[in-house]
Amino acid sequence: MSASTRVPTVPVRLPRNPPDTMLGAVRAFADTMAGRRSVRDFAPDPLPDGVVEAAIAAAATAPSGANIQPWRFVTVTEPGRKRRLRLAAEAEEREFYARRAGDRWLADLAPIGTTWEKPFLEVAPVVIVVFEVHKGPRTPRPYYVKESVGIAVGLLIAALHHAGLATLTHTPSPMRFLNEICDRPPEERPYLVLPVGYPAAGARVPDLRRKDLAEVLVRQ
Questions:
Q1: Which residues pair with 175 in a beta bridge?
Q2: CB 3.0 to 4.6 Å from 165: which of 38, 160, 181, 216, for a disulfide?
Q3: What's the total number of domains in the chain?
Q4: Residue 83 belongs to domain spanning
Q5: Residue 169 zone, left/alpha/beta (φ > 0; ψ -120 to 50; rest)
Q6: Which of 219, 148, 157 is closest to 193 using CA atoms?
Q7: 135: DSSP letter
Q8: 21 within a domain of the structure (yes/no)
Q9: Is residue 152 part of a domain?
Q10: Taking the mean position of all CA atoms in its chain, how far away is CA 140?
């Protein structure tokens, strides 16, 4: 890119926080996120207007290769469309549990108690279907697509949790049926399904242990 075609620049807008407040701020955020769990039992209660849209706006601030921003967020709320989504996803999941998953994979899933049944896709008031946007008639060639979309989804989950909403990352395989259900063009490839809502009354989650910092951090 020549100097004459470069994007104009603006000053960095990042306040330099006092050093004695930084650790506390990060720990407070970490404590909030430590309470995030994947929820499979949702209440059907409607969500406040604008909350999901604001979380998606936060997700869309994610960095991306060459700033192509190769993501599309489709919010599904219409009951008939959610019903179609659930039935199609369960058809793929039945095949997965019966034929595609190996014994080791099924053994690892067994303690969590997941099955091919996915009622949350119909019960949750909002289901966000995230697509990778690849090169098409009206879309440019993207770079580092999965990395870029993955970062955006991480921000989305964090924003929704910060708002007090539960989520679940669901990845039926294959997922091409989502293009038809969500009326999306072929250059958009399904990445993730994210039910969003309040946990159902009495909802429970497995008592899982997260790895200690010493197990995931390498200092060099």
A1: none
A2: 160
A3: 1
A4: 38-199
A5: beta
A6: 157
A7: S
A8: no
A9: yes
A10: 23
Tokens of residue 107, six digits: 């053994």
Structural domain contains residue 210:
no
List all residues 6 or more positions away from 112 whose beta carbon is below 8 Å from its beta carbon: 206, 208
User: How many angstroms separate the CA atoms of 193 and 122, rounded?
Assistant: 12
DSSP, collapsed to helix, strand or coil, labels residue 191 as strand
**CATH (domain of 105):** 3.40.109.10
Give the mean pLDDT per block of 10 residues along the chain (220 residues): 75 95 97 97 98 98 98 98 98 94 93 94 98 97 98 98 98 95 98 98 95 97
**What is the SS3 assignment for 171?**
coil
Q: How far is CA 136 from CA 62, 74, 142, 184, 188, in A?
A: 22, 18, 10, 12, 9
Are the beta carbons of 39 and 206 closer than 8 angstroms?
A: no
CB atoms within 10 A of CB 37: 16
- Note whether residue 15 is domain-resident: no
